[in-house]
């Protein structure tokens, strides 16, 4: 999508400096710009070469790891920024790159899912005329009720300070926009929203009644609050604000992730909190798991009195404060500190870690010295706590090592285990035996009260190993598990007709399983969720491979000089030379069945989505439905002879309608499977264009590169 511009010349940099400040001040010798054969770098006052972001005379610049000033598009904290030819970060400006317009917001972040000057900035930042999109901009203060919005719904609080949505369905995103100054309020009642994105400050979004929201993205310091009638829960909240301030989380959520410069105040129960950048976190409600990632160095977590955090996993230095309770701190690096008033029941220290907080349990009262009365007591651990302590140590040790040997990278967060698979040809049952079953067997030597174990497919609870007795898992004297038991468990989990020898990791890609432990002396089972994901490098390679095959198939069409076909990103366009050409004339050219030729290239299934009619037609490798079946919906349907219709009728019928084909593709090399949406567009040449020789009509070929972005289901 984006390409880097050429490094700026000396003149451009001097002009930029003049624009950023009225006059360039004299600098000390050790703080200056240096031009080395056309490459600019910046020497700081301490004599070191600047790397990363630097602000100089009210302008922001970015430098690579070698200290070279960057221009063009750069990514930082999952945001895109554009640095001009002078190196200055652009802000509140339009940028044109490779024929596509983008808008850069005042913060310097590339706008996505945004409206500006009559254009909509799409999910990948590209500007399209708002009139051509399915999105709606709402400025009227009157409430809207019972509407279904196919695209995005933009609510502008600048002109309508108080709005209400009742019984509204938004299939795209509900985006709150404004001028960052007007204090607005949006109330959402009994509505179904796929995602909410707040892109203006000083605005409150109130959730009420039976409202359902999957994702909330807080891109500015706005608030999303529930009223007393709200009965739901949000699946995921992403805090992405690039400005300072405070963001309050008042809605219960399963997952919260933060990459922000603002402080975050958690005031509602949260299952999982992931901190991706250094910030200040206030915990004023119960949070099950907090993970501080490597990129969140020097984060501060304050747990208030009466609030409890289940586990804090510190993969970067973090300061823990407050009067609350933390059941467990996992210190995987040095520099994890805790205040004297914070209750910490357990501490687990990672390998090579020398500095970590100490256990700080609350006193039960009485004197701490002398006599038989009083003194502190250590709470007795439950069977579940004893088991989890031993099992999680095994997971982070032998289990992770064994998985890595099978090309699976494991991350563990509380009771969730995620496996990132880099080689899908690995035998799946061999992977299960060498990792989870072996680890279960190993942990029985440290914890003897495991009664039985069961592995369950989360998509189908009938697919299960059944109860696996510990004696069977430990195997014989040599440690080998009985082959008949392995076959029995494998068939139950993966299917009666499945050959366990042939089953590969590709067959369980994106699957989720639950491991259930039944313990002696405990009435509650201990469960862990295992999610298997395909590595992004394999996914991206599969996308590129599919795009290459699509381009080749479309470029190979012989349209009998009736028109031309081209591919641009995920849009397949057909331009006819004459509006009087009939469907019958082009139906034998392969125009409507070009994708069918890809069945031998890894395409497994097609889904033709008629968005206007709301119908879906699926085609498989053995039987592919052509687009003719869908065209009948627009050209009259029933027994109409579609072949007699000309392309002008077709284009008119499809005006402002998307013909979307979802292609399910399996890469023959790495076995990754992707689902990609392609949009069909039809047009006809103008009278002046049709005077050219049809034989000279080119077929466009698109170069595929790593920046091609696909729409994935």
From TrEMBL:
<protein>
    <recommendedName>
        <fullName>Cell wall binding repeat protein</fullName>
    </recommendedName>
</protein>
<keyword id="KW-0677">Repeat</keyword>
<feature type="signal peptide">
    <location>
        <begin position="1"/>
        <end position="28"/>
    </location>
</feature>
<dbReference type="Pfam" id="PF01473">
    <property type="entry name" value="Choline_bind_1"/>
</dbReference>
<keyword id="KW-0732">Signal</keyword>
<feature type="compositionally biased region" description="Gly residues">
    <location>
        <begin position="367"/>
        <end position="376"/>
    </location>
</feature>
<feature type="repeat" description="Cell wall-binding">
    <location>
        <begin position="50"/>
        <end position="69"/>
    </location>
</feature>
<dbReference type="InterPro" id="IPR018337">
    <property type="entry name" value="Cell_wall/Cho-bd_repeat"/>
</dbReference>
<feature type="region of interest" description="Disordered">
    <location>
        <begin position="351"/>
        <end position="382"/>
    </location>
</feature>
């Amino acid at each position: 999508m984006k390409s880097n511009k050429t490094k700026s010349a000396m003149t451009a940099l001097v002009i930029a400096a003049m624009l950023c400040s009225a006059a360039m001040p004299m600098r000390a010798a050790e703080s200056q710009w240096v031009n080395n054969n056309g490459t600019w770098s910046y020497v700081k006052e301490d004599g070191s070469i600047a790397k990363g972001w630097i602000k100089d005379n009210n302008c922001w610049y970015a430098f690579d790891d070698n200290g070279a000033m960057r221009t063009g598009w750069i990514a930082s904290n999952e945001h895109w920024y554009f640095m001009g030819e002078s190196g200055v970060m652009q802000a509140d400006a339009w940028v044109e790159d490779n024929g596509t317009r983008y808008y850069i917001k005042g913060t310097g972040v590339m706008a996505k899912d945004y409206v500006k000057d009559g254009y909509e900035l799409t999910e990948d930042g590209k500007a399209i005329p708002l009139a051509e999109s399915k999105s709606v901009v709402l400025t009227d203060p009157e409430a809207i009720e019972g509407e279904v919005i196919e695209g995005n719904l933009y609510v502008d609080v600048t002109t309508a300070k108080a709005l209400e949505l009742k019984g509204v369905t938004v299939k795209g995103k509900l985006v709150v926009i404004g001028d960052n100054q007007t204090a607005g309020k949006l109330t959402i009642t009994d509505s179904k929203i796929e995602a909410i994105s707040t892109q203006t400050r000083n605005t409150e979004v109130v959730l009420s009644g039976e409202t359902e929201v999957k994702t909330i993205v807080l891109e500015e310091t706005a608030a999303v609050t529930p009223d007393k009638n709200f009965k739901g829960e949000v699946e995921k909240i992403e805090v992405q604000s690039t400005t300072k301030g405070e963001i309050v989380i008042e809605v219960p959520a399963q997952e919260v992730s933060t990459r922000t410069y603002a402080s975050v105040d958690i005031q509602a129960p949260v299952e999982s909190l992931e901190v991706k950048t250094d910030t200040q976190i206030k915990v004023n409600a119960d949070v099950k798991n907090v993970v501080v990632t490597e990129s969140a160095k020097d984060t501060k977590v304050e747990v208030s009195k009466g609030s409890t955090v289940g586990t804090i996993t510190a993969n970067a230095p973090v300061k823990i404060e407050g009067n609350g309770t933390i059941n467990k701190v996992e210190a995987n690096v040095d520099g994890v500190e805790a205040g004297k008033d914070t209750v910490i029941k357990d501490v687990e220290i990672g390998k090579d870690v020398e500095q970590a907080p100490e256990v700080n349990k609350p006193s039960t009262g009485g004197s701490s010295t002398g006599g038989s009365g009083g003194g502190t007591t250590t709470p007795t651990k439950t069977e579940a706590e004893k088991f989890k302590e031993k099992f999680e140590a095994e997971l982070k040790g032998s289990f992770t090592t064994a998985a890595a040997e099978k090309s699976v990278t494991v991350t563990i967060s509380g009771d969730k285990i995620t496996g990132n698979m880099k080689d899908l040809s690995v035998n799946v049952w061999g992977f299960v035996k060498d990792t989870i079953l072996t680890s279960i067997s190993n942990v029985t030597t440290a914890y003897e009260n495991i009664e039985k174990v069961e592995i369950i497919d989360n998509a189908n609870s009938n697919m299960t190993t059944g109860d696996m007795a510990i004696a069977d898992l430990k195997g014989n004297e040599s440690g080998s598990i009985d082959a008949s038991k392995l076959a029995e468990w494998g068939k139950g989990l993966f299917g009666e007709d499945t050959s366990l020898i042939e089953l590969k990791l590709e067959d369980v890609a994106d699957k989720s399983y639950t491991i259930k432990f039944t313990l002696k002396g405990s009435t509650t089972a201990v469960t862990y969720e295992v999610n298997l994901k395909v590595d992004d490098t394999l996914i991206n390679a599969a996308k590129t491979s599919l795009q290459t095959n699509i381009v080749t198939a479309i470029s190979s069409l012989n349209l009998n000089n009736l028109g031309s076909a081209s591919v641009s990103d995920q849009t397949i366009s057909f331009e006819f030379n004459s509006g009087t050409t009939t469907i019958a004339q082009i139906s034998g050219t392969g125009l409507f069945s070009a994708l069918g030729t890809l069945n031998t290239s890894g395409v497994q299934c097609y889904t033709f989505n008629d968005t206007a009619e709301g119908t879906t037609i699926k085609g498989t490798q053995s039987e592919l439905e052509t687009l003719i079946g869908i065209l009948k919906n627009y050209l009259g349907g029933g027994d109409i002879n579609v072949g007699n219709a000309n392309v002008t009728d077709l284009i008119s019928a499809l005006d402002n309608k998307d013909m979307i084909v979802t292609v399910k593709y399996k890469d023959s090399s790495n076995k990754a499977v992707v689902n990609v949406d392609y949009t069909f567009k039809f047009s006809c040449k103008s009278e002046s264009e049709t005077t050219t020789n049809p034989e000279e009509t080119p077929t466009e070929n698109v170069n595929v590169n790593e920046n091609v972005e696909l729409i994935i289901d």
